[in-house]
Amino acid sequence: MNNQENRPFLTIKEASEMLGISVSTINRLIKRGDFPLKVKISPRRMVFMKCQIQEWVDKKRKDW
Question: Scanning 29, 52, 55, 61, which has its CA 20 to 30 A from the CA of 39?
Answer without folding.
Answer: 61
